[in-house]
Amino acid sequence: xxxxxxxxxxxxxxxxxxxxxxxxxxxxxxxxxxxxxxxxxxxxxxxxxxxxxxxxxxxxxxxxxxxxxxxxxxxxxxxxxxxxxxxxxxxxxxxxxxxxxxxxxxxxxxxxxxxxx
Amino acid sequence: xxxxxxxxxxxxxxxxxxxxxxxxxxxxxxxxxxxxxxxxxxxxxxxxxxxxxxxxxxxxxxxxxxxxxxxxxxxxxxxxxxxxxxxxxxxxxxxxxxxxxxxxxxxxxxx
Lengths: 117, 111
Known about the structure:
The structure holds two protein chains of two kinds.
Chain A: E1 5-7, E2 10-13, E3 19-24, E4 31-37, E5 44-50, E6 53-57, E7 64-68, E8 74-78, E9 87-94, E10 107-108, E11 112-116
Chain B: E1 9-13, E2 18-23, E3 32-38, E4 45-50, E5 55-56, E6 61-64, E7 70-75, E8 84-91, E9 105-110
Parallel strand pairs in B: 1-9
Antiparallel strand pairs in B: 2-7, 3-4, 3-8, 5-6, 6-7, 8-9
């Protein structure tokens, strides 16, 4: 069973640029969530996708957008990068349904470290 | 989601038991208590969860107070591999899409 994978591992961009991060969910999982983790902080929820539709969103501006594909892999896109976007971006998959259950376990990938200069 | 309070850091000797506390005084009746941990340079990983009764699995035990306003994650014999940040998270009954992380407790294990 393959776990959650993310690419790239590290990325350096300059302010104002756009970035796309990728995530392959664990086999059999149809729900993907994205989190942002600043240095020294806990992860913060960005949004979640269930079967190619956004299923919930945290307090992030519209320049953070995403996609989920028919094979349940996912992309996180960030436009007009700002210095504060420098963080570890984590993807998590779960075997969810639209009515997300409180007992659902999320399985995290290793993350992509984004540095904005 | 309701808020949790954890100590910033704790230390333990290797092969000793570790009790990691979490306060959640505003917990509601349908909130599940989840614990995740994050090892250095890795994403978080699930440890255990419970609602009212104490729970055991191969990784840890979860002791939940009778009034559910606090809980304790118990590692029975700490190893160096258990050095991580431990997060206590409450998840509401229906429609709780996300995990709401606090800053967690950084556990150091001393050889």
